[in-house]
Amino acid sequence: MAAKDEGKDPKKKSATVCGFPISIFFIVVNEFCERFSYYGMRAVLVLYFKYFLRWDDDFATTIYHTFVALCYLTPIMGAIVADSWLGKFKTIVYLSIVYTVGQVVLAVSAIHDITDTNRDGTPDNMTLHIVLSMLGLALIAVGTGGIKPCVSAFGGDQFQDHQEKQRGTFFSIFYLSINAGSLLSTIITPILRGQECGIYTKQKCYSLAFGVPAGLMVASLIVFIVGSGMYIKTPPQGNIMVKFFTCIGFAIKNRFRHRTNEFPKRTHWMDWAEEKYDKLLIAQVKMVLKVLFLYIPLPMFWALYDQQGSRWTLQATNMDGDFGILTIQPDQMQTINAILILLLVPIVESVIYPLIAKCKINFTPLRRITVGMFFAALAFIAAALVEIQIERTLPKFPSSPEVQVKFINMGNKSLDLTAGTNKVTLEAFTANADYLTFEQHFDLTVGSDFNYSTTLTPGSRNTMVIFPDTTPPKLMPFTDINAKPEQGANAIRFFNGLDSDLNVTIGNLDFGDVSANNMSVYVGVPKGSAQFKIKSAAEECVYTQELGFGSSFTLIIPPTFAFGSNCEQSIRPVLDMEQNSFHMAWQIPQYFLLTLGEVVFSVTGLEFSYSQAPSNMKSVLQAGWLLTVAVGNIVVLIVAEAATLQDQWAEYVLFASLLLVVCVIFAIMAYFYTYIDPAKIEAEFAQIDPKQKEKRRNSRKDSVEQHKEERRSSDSSYDNEEQKQTRI
């Protein structure tokens, strides 16, 4: 049932300011808040999957792109609901409520204390977090996708027919609000994520990073509803998308029904719809199908483009984000895309294209789209080169049948070791510089008299603390981290070589009580000048160390340690893992190439689709364009799962190669495409008198019925003749 109160007076005049309806300001603010909410949440989403839900890179990438695909599949649903049932206003309101609930549920899912039963902060039931997260993301996908095709169109409805100039300015402001929301959110939400929060333990504050976008979505909904009395609300008038698909369905069904070769031929398979639909609609469907055919290769571009929020963000976690005056978090690098869009769009439109035109080069829209795909492929080649350099700086971790060991001498004099075939000399309270690699079982000789047969867990990194002053020497193995520290933090732990317990803290982070002659837990410490407070019952020592991104240290408190003014000088740092040394600035070229590709590809694609679409089917092509984004994210899932490549750089090269192949295919398709003027074609069909169209349609039906009758007569004569032959 149609929403009968959607707009009783769709032509009513709204109050204006400087010639613009006041209502559009509510719509622009609504869009800014909604885009802030969406892009802010999405900026930290893949890190939430990896570091909070503890999913590996591949699975985190899979769920991320599944979510993005759903966000671009649901616009079709939103357009049908708005145009056929509720109208744009009610669709936006109802689905925004769904959207807001989804954001709130996602924020609640990230509160790491909601299922804690232990004061160590370990969730007692991670399943609840996962269920809430998936429910929240599903509601967000329905909400954001459902309102996507409605908001901009609803804004356009606020203008009268004579306000074409103001309507054009509105769409420019509307686009600016989208990019402003995206830019600010990708800067702010990673900062919010970096805060520490929690009741029992302090962890990265994903609940705050999701909670602020949820608050912005609440504000978006309130602002939109407040302007309700000022809006021009056009009632639903039937969805052209439904007519589009029913017309195609009838043509296919009718052609299949008359698939015999004896039936009169038709120029185009859509002409089989003439028995039910007029020629104008059929001609419009033909024009749309012609463009949609060109869309077939386009999802491959989006398959690469949307990986800046997944693979490229994960790549940045292994890089150095120190830019001197500011420190960039891995998820903040996505801000480069929004900044470059604002810079490159006017440069490309005002400088690059005019220069190409002056060179007498016919840079058609389809050629621009081809060039855009080529730039995206180059961006992934650049990403592959960056990944190769990153991998050279990463430590070599042991494979499953191997173990890696570092030895620490807790004696007050040098110590000779023989580990397997390796001879090592350790000074007092120091460790060997690099990890030694062994088979799972290896022999260890301490000094010249004490032999040990050692077995460690396959694929593990270990630190073996040796107390040589006991008889026999005492060995204490500890398991080390076997991957780069999370989110670019530094994994720090303390070994307490004293005979009494110590407590170690840094800011709000607590290493806990470190028992005598024992190792503390690892604590993730952010970049900067870290000040560790080492406390006994009545005394305190402050130890300061400068930390970069992604390093790991074991800080030894030797038996000779004593509290006092020079206490920190006796603490011995052991470097277990080098800090990230390849700078995030090296990601800028790949972001530049991808954004340049986006500006040439996306803006031109929308312009081309608009120019080649019939006046009443532009929304159909808009839905088709959004569908290519959804399919592109599905392609990521298929390729990533099917390829199973061990090296990330190889996956980047694979995606670049696939896009280059698709680029060639699209260039061939574009070569044979003939540009049309939809308005001219529609005008030709519009000149046909309605009575004449009805007469032609009836004539076509009579022809079909006449052919059927002739066919029945022929079949009857054949059957009679066959019966005679049988009797004979």
Automatic annotation (TrEMBL):
GO annotations of cellular component type: apical plasma membrane
Disordered: annotated segments: 690-728
Membrane topology label: Multi-pass membrane protein
Subcellular location: Apical cell membrane; Cell membrane; Membrane
The keyword Kinase is assigned to this record: no
Origin: domain of life: Eukaryota
PANTHER family: OLIGOPEPTIDE TRANSPORTER-RELATED (PTHR11654)
UniProt family annotation: Belongs to the major facilitator superfamily. Proton-dependent oligopeptide transporter (POT/PTR) (TC 2.A.17) family.
Job of this protein: Electrogenic proton-coupled amino-acid transporter that transports oligopeptides of 2 to 4 amino acids with a preference for dipeptides. Transports neutral and monovalently charged peptides with a proton to peptide stoichiometry of 1:1 or 2:1. Primarily responsible for the absorption of dietary di- and tripeptides from the small intestinal lumen. Mediates transepithelial transport of muramyl and N-formylated bacterial dipeptides contributing to recognition of pathogenic bacteria by the mucosal immune system.
UniProt protein name: Solute carrier family 15 member 1
Source species: Gasterosteus aculeatus aculeatus
